[in-house]
């Protein structure tokens, strides 16, 4: 589903990482750990085509990202990807249900009843049942985190990229969110790359890798 080969990234001429290799098959869950600032979010952004790589190759769902135009990249993201951003990126002027339903609308779905059903299902799954009409500014950080997760999974993406999805959650809610991600991977056959500082979250993955400036390596306990 995802192949990263010899990835190189610089920011403003300064090296972030080089020599990053990663292959993730459908139905496989990989956690990426690493020191703060080593480039974990940057790696996810490169995989999503949100930041250009400076070298190496990324192949997502059989398509090589290099050389794809903005339009093709946007379509690939819409159709294949669910991204849980560290900073949520929940749209402030849309209510919770509209935020969660957005990926379905961007895919061209117009069956309002079907969209409402699926959004309701996601609200229940992340423990936000009844909060669909609330605006984001009335939610807590942990609730916003769960909106972001529901929105990333609503269209059953083939590849899930999750940047610290449990960072703002209490241990019980974090475990529920990890259940959702693991279910999406194992029951639905999605691939998942999870960036986290949480050893508990990483323990749910099939493989754990640690990002260093010169590549991704197996964790000591792996
Ligand atoms: N837009 C940018 N312009 C310049 N430098 C950047 C930019 N984004 C990130 N960086 C730098 O790239 C490096 C990697 O940042 P990144 O956010 O990917 O790290 P991270 O491993 O995800 O960190 P954390 O665990 O703290 O979230 C850092 O040194 C950061 O300062």
From TrEMBL:
Q: Name one GO cellular component term.
A: plasma membrane
Q: Which one of the record's GO molecular function terms can you name?
A: ATP hydrolysis activity
**Could you confirm whether the keyword Membrane appears in this record?**
yes
Q: Which SMART domains match?
A: AAA
Residues forming the ABC transporter domain are: 2-221
Q: Tell me the PROSITE patterns matching this sequence.
A: ABC_TRANSPORTER_1, ABC_TRANSPORTER_2
> What name has this protein been given in UniProt?
AttE component of AttEFGH ABC transport system
Q: Which taxonomic lineage does the organism of this UniProt entry have?
A: Bacteria, Pseudomonadati, Pseudomonadota, Betaproteobacteria, Burkholderiales
């Amino acid at each position: 589903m995802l192949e990263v080969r010899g990835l190189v990234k610089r920011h403003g001429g300064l090296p972030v990482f080089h020599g990053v290799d990663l292959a993730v098959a459908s139905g496989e869950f990989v956690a990426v750990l690493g020191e703060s600032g080593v480039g974990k979010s940057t790696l996810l952004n490169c995989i999503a085509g949100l930041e250009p790589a400076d070298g190496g190759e990324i192949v997502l769902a059989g398509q090589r990202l290099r050389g794809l135009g903005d339009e093709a990249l946007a379509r690939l993201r819409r159709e294949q990807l669910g991204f849980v951003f560290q900073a949520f990126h929940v749209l402030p002027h849309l209510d919770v249900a509209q935020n969660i339903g957005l990926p379905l609308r961007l895919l061209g779905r117009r069956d309002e009843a079907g969209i409402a059903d699926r959004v309701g299902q996601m609200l229940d799954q992340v423990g936000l049942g009844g909060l669909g009409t609330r605006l984001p500014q009335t939610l807590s950080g942990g609730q916003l985190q769960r909106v972001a997760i529901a929105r990333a999974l609503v269209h059953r993406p083939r590849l899930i990229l999750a940047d610290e999805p449990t960072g703002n959650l209490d241990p019980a809610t974090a475990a529920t969110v990890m259940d959702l991600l693991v279910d999406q991977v194992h029951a639905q056959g999605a691939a998942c790359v999870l960036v986290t500082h949480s050893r508990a979250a990483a323990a749910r993955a099939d493989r754990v890798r640690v990002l260093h400036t010169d590549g991704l390596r197996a964790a000591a306990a792996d």
